[in-house]
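From the pipeline queue, job 12 of 40. The input is one protein chain; the requested action is below.

Action: predict structure.
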Amino acid sequence: MTWNNRFRLLGGVLGVILFTLALALVFNHRQNQVSSYTGQVNADTYSIGADHAGTVVRQFVDEGDSVTAGEELFQVQSLQLKQDIANGLEVSDTPAYNVDAKRGIITYYAVSAGTIEELNARQGNSVPAGGALAKLYGGDRYLEASFHLAPRDYARVVPGAEARVVLPNDQVITASVTKVSVANSVDGTVATLKLDSPQLLTLTQPTLSEPGTPVVVNVQLVDSGPLAPVTDAVNDLLQQVGLR
């Protein structure tokens, strides 16, 4: 065998080894990712409930309005409350509402900055005790996604884990896991993850960050296998050159 053929053979063997290693890395990387079967943008939700039955005499907001903490939302006049106060009932003001005992009027306020949704009562409407006037979506937006995970994979999802989020317009943003919870359902064991992504606040299409926007979340599992160091190094390299 000539040296030329020997070099060709060596090159072929090395090529097969590199190709096999690449396939192993790809397989290992995919084995360490899980995709959500449901996912959406969420926000903290506050129900603005009428503590006493009455009539909405003032309505300061409409559905979709943005409000700040402490802003007036509704005024409800309750003759029953006025009578109860006259009979000795003591009612204390809270950040959520203020009571005018003489007129029997309760003024409701926003407990957080946010957006008014599900407006259930308008000026002139009667509301029952405990009835919801509206819902307030407040605070920062976050992501919530559910996964079907095998028992061996549940422990591999940890707070701080990286995630890749695909929005409805196919835009991809990054996120990190902040909370992991598990529950049993008719479909088996379901893991629900809460994730934060600062990029949600900087989207060029603000509607994509509205609560209820569907997303697909791919989470990176903790890799403790023998190829973990090599996989991490390759992923870091691909991220640095912009291919991941």
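Job complete. The first strand starts at residue 33 and ends at 35.
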